[in-house]
Amino acid sequence: MMHINLFLFGCGHHNAAWRHPDSQVERLGDIRYYEEMAQLAERGKLDAVFFADGHATNNITDGPRWFLEPVTMLTAISRATRHIGLVSTISSTFFTPFHAARLMASLDHISGGRAGWNVVTSMFDVEARNHGYEAMPGHAERYARAEEFIQAVLQLWDSWDDGALLNDRAGDYVDESRVRQINHRGKHFLVDGPLTVPRPPQGHPVLFQAGASEHGRALAAKHAEAIYAVAYDLPSAQAYYRDVKARVKAAGRQVDVPILPGLVTFIGSTEAEARAKQRALDELLPAETSLRQLQLFIDQDCMGWELDAPVPPLPPLEAFTGPKGRYATVLRIIETERPTVRQLLGRLAAGGGHCTMVGTPEQVADQMEHWFRNGGADGFNLMPPVQPDSVQDFVDHVIPILQRRGLFREDYEHTTLRGHLGLARPGRQ
Amino acid sequence: MMHINLFLFGCGHHNAAWRHPDSQVERLGDIRYYEEMAQLAERGKLDAVFFADGHATNNITDGPRWFLEPVTMLTAISRATRHIGLVSTISSTFFTPFHAARLMASLDHISGGRAGWNVVTSMFDVEARNHGYEAMPGHAERYARAEEFIQAVLQLWDSWDDGALLNDRAGDYVDESRVRQINHRGKHFLVDGPLTVPRPPQGHPVLFQAGASEHGRALAAKHAEAIYAVAYDLPSAQAYYRDVKARVKAAGRQVDVPILPGLVTFIGSTEAEARAKQRALDELLPAETSLRQLQLFIDQDCMGWELDAPVPPLPPLEAFTGPKGRYATVLRIIETERPTVRQLLGRLAAGGGHCTMVGTPEQVADQMEHWFRNGGADGFNLMPPVQPDSVQDFVDHVIPILQRRGLFREDYEHTTLRGHLGLARPGRQ
């Protein structure tokens, strides 16, 4: 069975989504906008809704990026839904482990065991300068901190045993022998514990991770219980899938970690209709905005580039110090398609180089099945180019096909995110 | 008109509340427990629900203190209510200003302008050791940090003007001239801004503060928009009220800052019934627990004290380095009543020395009116000794009397917490 999350973002993942006449850009501060989309995803029996997070506004004239804070959004969504998982990104660079453990444990209790934590290390200096740093710590330093952060969070969740709460009115509230300090003293953190929140319903909220770099893959192999991957095409998906599954096994873990590449879909009743939807959106895209976005991805001065000329040569992957996955995708597109600058911008405008599938519901279901059956994916992190239209197209037309083929659940069989993902509830470690 | 908040805490503010046969101690992880009490408070047209916060478990065998994290709780409550304000405590010692500003702004958007922030500096070393400190910074240092913290938070809320969002599909998403960096570089914080969340519906979520110390009063005079006070009796309430109102005026502020002392009520259809309720709860109290609580308040080794002997002499207020307000109350009880240790424990068991009113609904309404008409209070922060029973008694029997006397609103006239409290919406400062 596939696992499918809905990754909600602004008005949609296409940079021009908010410019669409039907966009709900006026509702980005309205929690019901997000609740309605989560309800739609729940109607489609999806595994989870997924939120990224950022700690700075970049290029805000170009379109919405962040608005509401993700843990508060997901808490509200938890009260408007019954089954769907709730995955929030929390940065290991800007929080303390106690804050992260506490927020996630609280969401897990409030939602009855539906919380997931997508751990990221963050990347931009503009974000760092909102949280006390003059600049971001280096890549290796961030990942060393993330490793220690995760260990402290897991220990905090384990600081209360199941059954620690006695509620014995004539005796003790808690069995003290089942609650303990963690006394963490590491290079980056000092945390005594125990957590103020008793053990979460899932034991541990599900740990998601995304990371294409060597450090990112190493962290995923050791800790991730589900992975949000970036793969432009099936060969790159397969290479990543093989590598990370092997690393998980090499780390001695028995768990089958679902790998879920990001997926942008344009769906129409004919292929031509789907392509027209995509083109209509691309045409709403101001060239300057896209060039600035590209600049952010590849760390080159692109603003003077000729739109209809071939993309100039770029430094090799090894020389690039930003997020490797996206940069590798750009190099791959250039290598395999020799695009003009304008063509490259089109490719990147929706989902920043994640896989794009365009066609009828059957065609999209076919491609998804092809990836699923050929070692490219255990499912997908859906990145709707326009919300809620693309979500609706997917839920109403692709999900029923996947269900008929026996590739996706007909209904929820579990009440927790761990249940949906086929992950066991961890004991104390 | 009075302002009345409901301060929810565990199973109630009486240390033995959870031991009561009717207590809902088994539901402390169930968000509906809190939603139901907030709905009850909203039925009584109360101004707000109010949550304290702590970052460590103390003496957990004795009874519940913390469970769910307050901002997530209040977010859920916001979706189960329509009018009532939502006040969360957030520590200026353990968060960054960006986190605090973002969480509160998000809650304010989600709730349609009902968020309040009770700023505290926190106090216990066991809390500090969950967030990277070996011990708490000193009192003066914490308040200096709080002052800088508040300034940064206010600037972050002001970093987006009203009307900054253009949502112009053919042009810009945002009017860049109405969004700005704050470039804060202080002794404790570095924050560039702008916030990721556009200006909150209330402009600024309402700033609550509580603090009896010199530093606390100075901070309140400068920044507080509503004050949660501790006053054991009317003379101490009047002294605090006069002093803080004068300080607010001296600070050059035009605003009338509501002062709301904590209030514990035991209500019965006769005075004898009310006293029996109080006694029944006191009798559930294990002496050792109460002595340990007292030890925390007065920083003396109390465990060997004889229960039926007079309270031993205590050091003067000036020599005490912990929270001054509670200590002053203990000194005042000892001075005016010469109690035995057991009698003192009884006084402190519910609400830790806040005012307690016991009697029929008319008697309690009379005392509240007396405080209100005689310069002791602009309203109260209700501290129900047992939840939900004490809340129900108050909402069903005291509120209607206050309404008949024209002392409390018959219905909500506003949609925001600022509206309920009679506070103007601030412009950019």
UniProtKB/TrEMBL annotation, chains A, B:
InterPro entries, per database record: Diverse_substr_monoxygenases, Luciferase-like_dom, Luciferase-like_sf, NTA_MOA
Keyword hit for ATP-binding: no
Record keywords: Flavoprotein, FMN, Monooxygenase, Oxidoreductase
GO molecular function list: monooxygenase activity; oxidoreductase activity, acting on paired donors, with incorporation or reduction of molecular oxygen
A Pfam family reported for this protein in Swiss-Prot or TrEMBL: Bac_luciferase
Domain Luciferase-like: 13-378
Binding site for FMN: D53, T89, H139, Y143, S213
Similarity comment: family membership: Belongs to the NtaA/SnaA/DszA monooxygenase family.
Name of the protein in its database record: Nitrilotriacetate monooxygenase component A
